[in-house]
Amino acid sequence: MRDFALSRPTTLAEAAAAFASGGEAAYLAGGHTLLPAMKSRLRMPDTLIDLSALPGITGVHHEADRLWIGALTTHAAVADDATVQSTIPGLARAALLIGDPMVRNRGTIGGVLANNDPAADYPAMAVAMDAVIETDRASHSADDYFQGMFATALEDGEIITRIGFRIPERAAYAKFRHPASRYAIVGVFVARFADGEVRVGIIGAGPGVFRWPQAEAALKNDFSPAAIKGLVLDSADLNTDIHAGPEYRAHLCGVMLANAVGEA
Fold this sequence. Notes:
Oligomer: single chain
Helix content: 25-40%
CATH class of the largest domain: Alpha Beta
Structural class: alpha+beta
Strand content: 15-25%
Order of helices and strands: EHEHEEEHHHHHHEEHEEEEEHH
Number of domains: 3
Mean pLDDT: 95
């Protein structure tokens, strides 16, 4: 890790100014991806901008048909929050499946969504619950925000401030975890809304988060594991690595979806 300047802004404007001050800059939230990348010299920022002192971008509140969570809210805080537990219990339970206690007490929801790792959990939740990702500059719908592996709609220096999840009637997450990293080899979040719409978000299986329209259509008519029995996801564009091939990942998507629907 090489030398770098450390900035600790106390306003969003100060953070944006530090990012634009020259050289390569990086925002630090929980740091679980950035710091290892810096140690291995995959990232070498001239300025590291610690966002932890920014006010007003932590916490949870219920507003109309959405549950809003501040970007610097940790996974542990999401899991423990009484409003999350009563409004979207599936989201609280899903947060408990992220990493281990050390990761959950340091990692942030905004950091995960900004990084957009294809095996991270929150992108599946954001897509399935039709989330809105608000920043210091714009508001992005989840369907437009995620743009492939580690790619998002964020512009350089744009800071996520809060995430608004559309509140479902039922929701649950099922995850086939790597035993060491606890990242998802496949993770499936399903949400059913009061108007009958069903959305299914899948992570780990492909190069980025995606929806499964055929499963959504089947579950809209019958929200039960029986409705998707025999439904097979096309494996053509799925990942293959030392952990699983595309056909096995396609199979896991069906198993995890059935588990999630059963839990919901």
